[in-house]
Every structure is written in structure tokens, then in C-alpha cells.
Amino acid sequence: MYITSLLLQVLALMRRYPVDRSIGGSGMSLGKKITYATLGAGFLVFDASTWVGGRSAASTVVLTILTALGSVLLGWFPRFAGVLVVVCSMADEVLSAGVLLSSVVLQLVVVDWLSRRWDAAVVAVVAVHAMTGTVVANDSMAFMRAQAVLTAIAVIVGMALRQYEHRLVELAEREARLRLELENEELRVRSEIALTLHDSIATDLAQVVVAGQSLARDLPAGSEEDRARALVDAGQQAMTHLRGLMDGLRTPDSVTERKNIDLRAAVSECRRMLESRGVLFEAGSSVSWDVLLRDLDPPSQTLLVLALREGAVNALKYAPDGSTVVVEIDQIGDHINLEVSSARHTGGGQSATIEEMRRQGMSGSTGLSGLAMRAARLGGKVVYGPAGDRWLLGASVPVRLGAEPDGGADVRVGVESAGDTGGD
Fold first, then answer.
1. How far apart are CA 21 and CA 10, in angstroms?
2. In total, how many domains does the chain have?
3. Where are the transmembrane segments (predicted)?
4. Which CATH number is 308's domain given?
5. What's the domain range around 353?
6. Which terminus of the chain, N or C, has fewer Cβ atoms within 10 Å?
């Protein structure tokens, strides 16, 4: 009863302090299980070979088989098999059954449990076994010395195995972390390439398509030479960007950083682009251009240029003929704000126009979300959405260099929430 009570306490300790089960589980390789099974089979064969004339006491046979079975199962069922070995070892001491390798198999349990960080259970088992053996042994001092040597060896091996398995887990976690970082970096690079393609080739080709459609529709009545020249210029610009991307995929910003990134050049470009399709363009600024060029760093200027061009291209694709695109630039506090407002179709015509654009590959979701990502990196914000019969796109960037990003993200604004807005 005393031994049974102690073993129940050992099981309770193992359930209460299963420190770092993941380490034990992940470190328990198939090779370790096979090693335990091989040792168990070897112990059984060795003990059986010492039975005189093939005969031995029934208790010795039973305890030997159970001890070997516990060693075999230790890799798969460490709690059950370990307790089985402990019980057999103590029974061998009490009954003097003469199971030769019971103490060695017990130390194998100590090694395994230490590698699993079941330290409290190991201490309890070693203490109970030592007390039991001391009480029943003929030479208690010799027993204690032998057990001390075996336990010391088991502790050294168990701690070394624990450290080895812990190192394996650390390496596995590091590999998983590096794999995740690699996947995230790959996703980031893909996103940057997508933004680069949108801000250069897709935008230019959109102008080509729209100009070509306008030319085909109004060819008999318009100034064919000017429209054809605009079409050729936009196509040449697209090919220039395409060659730059093919030539080593330059860094994302290098394609979109034109020779002149100031807003004055962008305003002139957008005015010329829209008026070629019969859309009026009005721009006003409460901030002098000198302030914009002086207080905004190149990435912030580039963002405003991209926002202006994004709004203009969306108007080029969706705004009704004869409508007006309004651009306003002002400063509020330490931020420069740019807003592009364009007319939009309402009702069923809007959805039909957008669906047609999507089929032609001229509409998506890269531009607006890409602007929001760029703005967040700079500490600014991008807002967009419908308001009545107008489509609004706004961008805000800090005027002070080194401003910390505030995690700004895209925010949809407007009084209407239903239907496609026509944003690109």
C-alpha cells in the first residue's frame, strides 16, 4: 500500500508539472523510440539467458517480461511505461526476484523523464526507489553506492538529451520563423512590384486605351493629329517603363520617380491628359509651390504626384464628357492635403461602365490600396470614396521630415455605400 500510494503521488506530480510538453513531443523522434524498444528486447534476451536450465521463478519471469515491455513502450507511452518499470523495479527489490537489469532500465526511465523536464517525478521516483532498496537490501551501503553511480550517469545523460532536444526545438522554431519572414518578404516584394507596375505601365496604358477609344469615336470631327500624337507619346512612355522593369526590375520607387516629381509638372500633365478627352481640369492651391518643394521630402512629393495622377486617370476612365475635375491643395497644421474631385456616372450606367472597364483590364484595386500603403509608411493617410455625384480622392502627408508613421490606412468616405465606386 505504501509503494502504491507513492506511485500515485508520482503520477500526480507528472500531471501537475508537465513542463514544456512540446519539447518532449517534438524531440521524441522515431530513432529514440526504436532505441528504447531495442534496449528492452536486449534486456529481455539477456535476463532470459541467465535462467538456469531455462527455468526460473514465476515472479522473476513475470517481472522481467514486464520490465522489458515497459522499456519497449517507453518511447510511445512514457507515463504508463515509466510507472510500469518503476513498479517492477521496486517489486524486484521487495521480492528479491533477481531481475538483473531492473535498476538499469529504471535509470533509462530517469533519462527519458529528465529529457521531458519531468524533474519532480524523477526526484520522487529516485527517492522512493532508494528508500525501498535501502530497507530490503542486505548491504544497504553497497546498494546506495551502486544506485548513486547509476543515477549520476542517468542524470548526466538525461540533461544532455534535454539540452539536445531543446536545441532541436530552437532550431525548428528558428526555421519556421525564417520561413515566415521569407514568405512575408516575398509577399512584400510582390506587392511592391504590383504597385510599380500600376504606377507606371498600367497608368500609361490606360491613357493609351482611353485616347485610342476617343480617337476611334470622334475621328471625323476632331483634331486627328493631336490625338494621334498623344496616343503615340503615351505608348512610348509605357514602353520606356517596360524596358526599365525588364532591365533588372529596378527598385520600386525608381520607376515612378520621374525626372520632375513636383506637383506643377504633374498638374500640367493631368490637365493635358484630361482635356484631350474633353474633361475640364481646375487646380487651386493655398500653399505656394516653393513651400511644397522646400518642406516636402521626395517620397512625400512622389505620393502627392501619384495621388493626383491616380485621381486623374480614374476621371479619364469614368468621368462623363464635359465634366470638371477639381484639384485642391492646402495645408492644415503640419500636413499638406491634396484632394481630387471628379464627376461620376450614377445609376445603372455607372455599373455598366465599370464592368466594361474591368473586362478591358483597365480597372482593379491596386492603385488606391497601394496609395494607402505608401501613405502609411510616410506617416500620412489616403481617403477615397463617393460623395453624391462626385468621386473624392484625398492624400495627406507630413511637411516635417522624419515624422513617425502613425499607421494610417485607407479610409473610405462618402455618403453612399452601395454600388461600385469606380476606383482603380
1. 17
2. 2
3. 34-53, 60-77, 83-106, 118-136
4. 3.30.565.10
5. 259-424
6. N
